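A quick aside before the break. I want you to see a complete sequence-to-structure record at least once, exactly as it would be stored in a machine-readable document. Don't worry about memorizing anything.
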Amino acid sequence: MTVKPVRLMGAHEIRIRLGGVSRQRAYQITNRSDFPAAVADLAQGKVWLAEDVESWMRVHRRQDSTNDKA
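That is the input. The structure line, written in tokens, reads:
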């Protein structure tokens, strides 16, 4: 039986994947109603499934980049 590792992202990793946006901008994005729900809220902050974040980015990054710098 092969177990697929779970890949998680915290706010810092999301900031990097979004092109180095500010902490404030990452907070705005991760609090959008259409952003995936965090899978846990740890003492260090929220964490998301990397697959969910990457799927969201594939759908939203192009349309957002025409309106503002996400």
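Two observations worth writing down. The chain has a mean pLDDT of 89. The chain is about 45% helix and 15% strand. We'll return to this after the break.
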